[in-house]
Specification:
Strands 3, 13, 14, 15, 16, 17, 18, 19, 20 and 21 form a 10-stranded mixed sheet that branches. Strands 4, 5, 6, 7, 8, 9, 10, 11 and 12 form a 9-stranded parallel sheet that branches. This protein has 403 residues and is α/β, with parallel strands linked by helices. The chain contains 12 helices and 21 strands. The protein binds pyridoxal-5'-phosphate (PLP).
């Protein structure tokens, strides 16, 4: 009886994924149909540019095992940050091209051949290792060159890129499929419009530097790599000149705008709903403080309920006493120190029973909504950190809308 409840198949276009049925009431519901709509909205803005979706960090917390197989047919390319994430995609049966965007040590280069992953190269030593590995395996390796145009993270800097470009052309076994850069300030409109801070508009300056690097190919009458790309979510919204051959949406694909002040030139909606249920309901008397540290106390009797989710699930402890949660369709105040596994909510004079619905993030049937940006504000961070910190203990449940 219990055994048969442990796993159920989840069907996608490509086949079956087996998922555990969550026994705990706290889970992240992921609307795959909404993710597809988000890709379509992005594609409509950037076409004819191709779309690479960023599935790094467990698909920004949404659960890569459900998101990747479902979304694969609708995208042209998939991006991840680290090698292991690329390997995981192949193990999930993903066959579309996968770009690993983060830095790689020369000794890890052979894995790119073994798993047919696209290597990001920004260092001569890695390029050399790639050429050697491809040579000895007798295979072509797909490479994207990464140019740093003002991020100062990784990538050969724009003013010294020529040598790497020249070196890349000498490697017969390498397919230099792409060349790209990454924006440091694409999401804030002011960085596009008020050049005071740096003496120039940062994103367009980065773009100009990138063009300068690309002109190498023209100058030498060489074909430039087939996939020139630059735009993250902020640039997709704010900077059409940055679309080139492909764009790389991350947060926007999940229906979240990278910044409150961003141009909403693509209409997307969040796909994730973080749900739980009331596991305890009681009257807390006046003057009886709630939770560790006794950080909250009421001067009148109130109903408080306990929600089985805490900072070990990614519901940040530093939000204590700030979040609102939706209980039975209505917003209420979280009260008392957020514990590792639970937190309390003040319902004042309202009622709630065991099993009643609690929404920590997302939209209730009543229309009440809590956005990733709200959690970000309570936690003093951004929506990226909120989503990527929903921990592995929270089961991801995937569904598609009936259409
Ligand atoms: C994470 C990442 C992106 C996506 O960024 P968003 O702001 O989430 O759109 C794009 N490109 C690279 C190289 C990245 O690492």
């Amino acid at each position: 009886m219990i055994e048969s409840h442990m796993r159920r198949p989840h069907f996608t276009r490509k086949g079956k994924i087996f998922m555990k049925i969550p026994l705990r009431p706290t889970h992240l519901l992921v609307n795959l149909t909404q993710l597809r709509r988000n890709v379509e909205a992005i594609r409509a803005r950037v076409q004819p540019a191709k779309v690479l979706v960023m599935l790094k960090a467990n698909a920004y917390g949404h659960g890569v095992e459900g998101v990747a197989p479902y979304i694969e047919p609708y995208v042209d390319y998939i991006g991840v940050a680290v090698l292991d994430e690329g390997v995981r995609l192949r193990e999930l049966g993903i066959t579309k091209p996968v770009l690993v965007a983060g830095g790689t040590l020369p000794e890890h280069v052979p894995y790119y051949l073994a798993y047919d992953l696209t290597l990001t190269v920004s260092h001569p030593a890695v390029l050399q290792a790639a050429a050697a590995a491809a040579e000895s395996a007798g295979k072509q390796m797909k490479v994207h060159l990464k140019i740093d145009t003002g991020m100062e993270r990784s990538g050969v800097r724009w003013y010294e890129a020529k040598a790497l470009l020249q070196q890349s052309l000498r490697c017969r076994q390498l397919d230099i499929e792409g060349i790209y850069t990454h924006f440091a300030n694409s999401e804030t409109l002011e960085s596009h419009e008020t050049p005071k801070k740096w003496g120039y508009a940062y994103p367009s300056e980065q773009l100009a530097r990138f063009h300068e690097v690309l002109s190498f190919y023209e100058k030498h009458s060489l074909p430039r790599p087939r996939l020139v790309h630059a735009a993250n979510s902020g640039a997709i919204l704010n900077l059409p000149e940055s679309f080139f051959d492909m764009v790389r949406p991350g947060i926007l694909f999940y229906g979240i705008y990278p910044d409150r002040g961003v141009l909403r030139s693509v209409q997307v909606a969040p796909a994730a709903t973080w749900k739980s249920q009331v596991v305890y309901s009681k009257i807390t008397q006046a003057g009886h403080p709630v939770s560790y540290g006794s950080l909250w106390v009421s001067d009148h009797a109130v109903r408080t309920v306990t929600v089985p989710c805490g900072y070990a699930d990614g519901y940040f402890r530093r939000m204590t006493n700030q979040p609102k949660v939706i209980v039975n369709g209505k917003k209420y105040q979280q009260v008392g120190r957020i514990c590792m596994d639970q937190f309390m909510v003040n319902l004042e004079s309202d009622d709630a029973d065991l099993g009643d619905e609690v929404i920590l993030l997302g939209k209730a049937a009543s229309g009440e909504q809590i956005l990733p940006e709200d959690l970000a504000e309570w936690a003093g961070t951004n929506a990226y950190e909120v989503m990527t910190n929903i921990s592995a203990r929270v089961p991801r449940v995937f569904f598609q809308e009936e259409e």
